[in-house]
Amino acid sequence: MGASVYNQTTNQMYMFPLGTYATVFHAEVPVYAICSCAKTILVESEASIAICSDSQVALMALRASKITSSLVAETIKALTELSMFNSVRLLWIPGHSDIPGNETADQYAKQAASQNFVGLEPVLGIPTTKIRNAAQLWANAQQRKLWQTTSGCRQAKMSLYGPDKKLSRYALSLPR
Fold first, then answer.
1. Rounded to two decimals, what is the model's pTM?
2. What structural domains does the chain harbor?
3. How far is residue 53's CA from residue 94's CA, in Å, rounded to a whole number?
4. Which residues pair with 12 in a beta bridge?
């Protein structure tokens, strides 16, 4: 996964590989790119700055009344600091509509995704859903292993073919 920032005025480009633990959500919701953009623009001269994003979800996350992500909180802080001396606007632009700056940023994000991240991981933290899914996969593997190594239960093993939740629920719902 990768993110990028492209400054069309100065023709500067920044690419950010997001490491191995980044999820599709991290890459698709470019809050990280907006945060990086706000941190790289060090202007204290009452400039008018427009940060364009093709992600409505990222812009809504920055406008939300309840902040549940530390990355969103960090981005709001960076944008607040940037807006102390500047006029900062966040604009939504349609993605994949041949808008030159957006197409360039998308190209650099793809390039960043192909690069290896150098540094400590995880870059953006590990989402609880990813931890929950890993724990569920581990528990299912342990259950399957226990099921296969248990002696006896020959007829149940023949009829259920292993710990399949839907089939098990159906079998348990049947009358004796």
1. 0.56
2. 2-125 (3.30.420.10), 129-173 (no CATH)
3. 8
4. 7
